[in-house]
């Protein structure tokens, strides 16, 4: 069973409550979840958030929209994923972060197929920041959960897998140059939120494909410039 887990919580350090900020007339997290519903190969879609009271509004908004919610450990996100995967009996886990409102279900399906055909433990689809997809064998996820003992691994779900290629079969699903741009479509700061808002408006608030969004940004460098200086956190920041 292919389980797509979207991780999100309210306590973002740089932009608290961002996943419930409005985008195209509704909470941003719903944009992410609704787009993922169009995947052909995802069997179950669930939001995984923490058990803390501050995440109650997030869980309630997602439940009211008709989506599944799993609640687990706040900081040991790898354990949250492991518990969620066991709860749903997953064989394959697709990891998506809730601050990526333009995730493309076609790229998700491509990642799932590459993971399956290459018989990998971990596969990543690297593209523009905010369109990234990671696909993990549940058995490998559980093994990482058992071995991970540092915050850089427990807070960043897949980091133990891709930093230990000697233990796991790790690979990348290659994409053409069309999908390789230095753009940011994830939301970490106000500048990012301004960009995704302008993109949503430019797309007529519809679920446009990644290709359409990239073409739009190619034609609007002034929008790209808004968050060009935002720094992406790395494992070293943990």
UniProtKB/TrEMBL annotation:
SUPFAM superfamilies: Nucleotide-diphospho-sugar transferases. GO terms for cellular component: cytosol. Coiled coil: none annotated. It comes from the Bacteria. Pfam families: CTP_transf_3 (PF02348). InterPro entries: Cytidylyl_trans, Nucleotide-diphossugar_trans. This is Spore coat polysaccharide biosynthesis protein SpsF. It comes from Anoxynatronum buryatiense.
